[in-house]
């Protein structure tokens, strides 16, 4: 899904770069207010994991291939603000060092694969969790549904980019059908990888999973008089 140089016209790329810079600035402020000592190394690990897994492509129908986007995975593990920052770093390194995605389209790619999947997918995650029991299994299931939805949502955003400033010459309907159809299949792989990873972290360190904060056990705090008072772990 990485957009190369020249695929979207210059004015659209400029607007995308400005919007992405604004989103990153807001994310830095939000992340600074919520990030604790435990999440800092986890955010680094999430970025490194997604960077590595994005290098691995899995086959999709019709001779195409796909790879993990990682937005929902990052959002569930460290929250959407920190997750979107981690993904922005990944996309910047990929564009600058590995020529994976164009430099002129970097802002569009950050919005497309980072913010769209982190916030759009995480919104789906929260909606699904509202109708499921408050269990670890439900967190994994909601992560899978959200991961698939985030990928499909990103394909819709790509189609919007193309409608506004696409230079490929292909009809918009053809591009839309190809992008959405293929990414509905790629989303299955995204859902599987996301569910497996969230499940693994939940089984070992559930206290680190941002999307499962409500599952942390309540603490019993003893008052000076010895009477118990209810509290919740942070």
TrEMBL record:
Keyword Membrane: yes
Transmembrane residue ranges: 7-28, 40-60, 72-99, 105-128, 140-164, 176-203
Keywords for the protein's UniProt record, in alphabetical order: Cell membrane, Membrane, Transmembrane, Transmembrane helix, Transport
Cellular location(s): Cell membrane
Keyword Transmembrane: yes
A single GO cellular-component term on record: plasma membrane
Domain of life: Bacteria
GO biological process annotation, one example: transition metal ion transport
InterPro entries in the record: CbiM/NikMN (IPR002751)
Membrane topology according to the record: Multi-pass membrane protein
Pfam families, A to Z: CbiM (PF01891)
Record's protein name: Cobalamin biosynthesis protein CbiM
């Amino acid at each position: 899904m990485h957009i190369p140089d020249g695929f979207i016209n210059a004015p659209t790329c400029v607007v995308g770069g400005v919007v992405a810079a604004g989103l990153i600035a807001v994310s830095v402020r939000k992340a600074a207010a919520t990030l604790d000592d435990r999440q800092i190394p986890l955010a680094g690990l999430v970025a490194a994991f997604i960077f590595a897994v994005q290098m691995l492509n899995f086959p999709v129908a019709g001779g195409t291939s796909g790879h993990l986007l990682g937005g929902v995975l990052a959002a569930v593990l460290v929250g959407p603000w920190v997750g979107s920052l981690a993904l922005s770093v990944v996309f910047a390194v990929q564009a600058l060092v590995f020529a994976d995605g164009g430099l002129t389209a970097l802002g569009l790619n950050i919005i497309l694969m980072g913010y769209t999947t982190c916030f759009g997918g995480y919104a789906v995650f929260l909606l699904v969790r509202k109708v499921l029991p408050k269990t670890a299994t439900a967190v994994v299931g909601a992560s899978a549904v959200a991961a698939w939805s985030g990928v499909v949502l990103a394909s819709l955003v790509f189609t919007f980019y193309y409608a506004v400033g696409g230079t490929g010459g292909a009809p918009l309907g053809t591009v839309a059908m190809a992008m959405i159809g293929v990414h509905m299949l790629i989303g299955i792989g995204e859902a599987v990888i996301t569910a497996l990873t969230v499940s693994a972290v939940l089984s070992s360190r559930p206290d680190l999973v941002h999307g499962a904060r409500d599952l942390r056990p309540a603490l019993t705090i003893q008052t000076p008089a010895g009477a118990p008072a209810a509290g919740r772990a942070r």
